[in-house]
Amino acid sequence: MFIRGNLTLFTDQDPEVAFPSQDVVWDRFEQAFRAVWGLVTYAPVFRDYYYQGLTQFYTDNVMYLELRALLPEVYELDGSTHDRAWTLKTYQDITTQFVSKHPDFFGARIIITNQRRANRSAIAEAVEEAMKLKKDFPDFLAGFDLVGREDRGKPLWYFRDALSLPAEKGVTLPYFFHAGETDLEGTEVDQNLLDALLLNTSRIGHGFALVRHPVAKYLSRKKGVAVEVCPISNQVLKLVKDLRNHPAAALMLENHPVVISSDDPAMFGASGLSYDFYEAFVGFGGITSHIGSLKQLAINSIRYSSLPPQQQKEALVLWQKRWNMFVTESEFLKTN
């Protein structure tokens, strides 16, 4: 229990007492990441850790995964370290190995990330490296994002010169920006949603504040930019207490593009994606939710993925077979 308590947000206390504010829970959240960092960046553990992660998602009936990753320097016991290209290649090799053993798993792609608390020069270097990696791994590297607590980090506009480098150099580097993961209004980071769209983000991570920005909401819907909603994360990190009050409920009613994501399931005691799908199903849709709601959310995961159109079609064919099997074999559906 002691080890688990230091590597996750689990607590024996009432969570409302243990984590009375966003500052407290975010500090604990980041401490847990620091605690686990040295364990999972040891090369043999790193490989097993990722393979086990794929296994858990596959067991949870996830057939395709887009993973945000910091691409750490992975170390060996002799003190040597591997660079980020090695780390990305290892992700690719293990994904290929996993697919070969599980042919009904469609695969995975990586969105490489950097911390939004970094300075301009560090992000410029990260974007330059991401452009090179995109060239070297065109079918496996999905794009780039900035992560970390938005309310304490720098706004996207602060990094505008670095984030404009791909367009200036004529290089395609898709963005998948975290934006609007805040319940504050009128701050610099509250403008991240508009800036993410101006920088042509492919999706919006969290987008909790989107309903407060009519222009951003209109633009994201018009451009087909989906919001990645992470119900458990938003609840645990104290953006919303009762999921019936989550802004995503209104977005879904308006038929705004929405996909359900699990953020950091291991930190929250969840597994794969089903926990978040369940909370979205009962929390956002209420008593009007039905099997069609789940079907649409699942289809959205493919439709708004980074896969090129032909691969999306192939993934949808594979998914449809799995869906038909689910509907046919579901004991709940047989009795309702």
Characterize the structure shown.
- β6 (178-179), α9 and β7 (203-206) form a beta-alpha-beta unit.
- By secondary structure, the protein is α/β, with parallel strands linked by helices.
- The chain is built from 17 helices and nine strands.
- The protein has helices at 2-7, 15-18, 22-40, 43-59, 84-101, 120-136, 160-163, 165-168, 192-198, 214-223, 231-236, 247-253, 265-268, 274-283, 291-303, 309-329, 331-334; strands at residues 64-69, 74-75, 81-82, 107-115, 141-147, 178-179, 203-206, 226-229, 258-260.
- It has a four-stranded parallel β-sheet. A three-stranded parallel β-sheet has the order 1-4-5. Strands 2-3 form a two-stranded antiparallel sheet.
- Among the domains are: 116-218, no CATH class; 230-329, no CATH class.
Strand content: 5-15%
Shape: globular
**How helical, in percent, are the residues?**
40-55%
Order of H and E elements = HHHHEEEHEHEHHEHEHEHHEHHHHH
**Largest beta sheet, briefly?**
4 strands, parallel
Mean pLDDT score: 94
pLDDT below 50 for ≥5 consecutive residues: which ranges? none
Distance between the termini: 40 Å
Q: Which structural category do the helix and sheet elements fall into?
A: alpha/beta
Q: Tally of extended strands?
A: 9
| Radius of gyration from the alpha-carbon trace, in angstroms | 20 Å
Strand order of the largest sheet: 6-7-8-9
Instruction: Report the total helices.
Output: 17
